[in-house]
Amino acid sequence: MTGATNDLFRVRSRLWGMKSPLVLLHGLTFDRRHWEPLRRELEVVDPGRCLLALDLPGHGEAPARSSYRLEEVVEVLHARMTAAALPAPPIVVGHSVGAVIGTVYAARYPARAVVNLDQILLPGPFGDIVRAAEPELRGPDWRAVWERMLAGMGIDGLRGEARHIAETATDPRPDLLLGYWAEILHSTDEQIRADREADLRKIAARGTGYRWITASEPPAAYRDWLTTLLPEAVVTVLPGSHLPHLEHSAELARRLSEMD
């Protein structure tokens, strides 16, 4: 756990500014190295900002677990944020499944805002794909499922360091895929929808900000669903891949620097 300890030390040792700390949660199979380009850009445009980039349970240098159910992951991350002694409720920036985790976190614990990077909160067609692939995920050809997922992320369109990080800062394993997709595999769409609606109502009641940065124009029905539950939600289309923190790190840093 050396890397995690170093992250916590860096948080404690920085001079605190007036802005809310940023907690960064990467996507499935990736790790906190995905935030390095964004960190560098923030050092330029927002040098006083406190950053805490965490490895999700089972990723990077974070220990593996027997279960990665959503509620358990949120509790593990909350314990690590508490250990970091953040002086104020954070802005939780989550990519992909990290955005689902960040949303659930903000419904349970104080947060200044959530920044959702390219993640629809309802399973929809993706849920159908995951459920259909479950037998394959439990067999020797599980990696083929993940390769199909990667093919739709737009990684081939990334260049230089962004592509290198996308291709190397990752460690796919069947326990992670099955574990982090457990909600989809073991719940109906209706149950998940009800859970997310309860989460979003709690976020709205807390007055927690919510920004969704999506790579393509969202379906009108989904956008209406989200903004009905969160009337103050800000939806931004940033065209490109599923990895805006790598493809548009400077633009994302600028947008985050404007949040307090």
Features:
AB_hydrolase_1; Pimeloyl-ACP methyl ester carboxylesterase; alpha/beta; AB_hydrolase_sf; Rossmann fold; catalytic activity; 13 helices; disordered N terminus; 52% helix; 260 residues; AB_hydrolase_fold
Describe the protein in words.
The chain has 13 helices and 6 strands. Strand 5 (209-214), helix 11 (220-229) and strand 6 (234-237) form a beta-alpha-beta unit. The chain has a 6-stranded parallel beta sheet. The protein has helices at 2-13, 36-45, 70-83, 97-108, 124-137, 142-151, 160-168, 174-180, 182-186, 189-206, 220-229, 244-247, 249-257, and strands at 22-25, 51-54, 91-95, 113-117, 209-214, 234-237. Helix content is 52%, strand content 11%. The protein has one domain: Rossmann fold, CATH 3.40.50.1820. With 260 residues, it is an alpha/beta fold. One of its GO terms (cellular component) is membrane. Residues 22-254 form the AB hydrolase-1 domain. This is Pimeloyl-ACP methyl ester carboxylesterase. It holds the Pfam family Abhydrolase_6. One of its GO terms (molecular function) is catalytic activity.
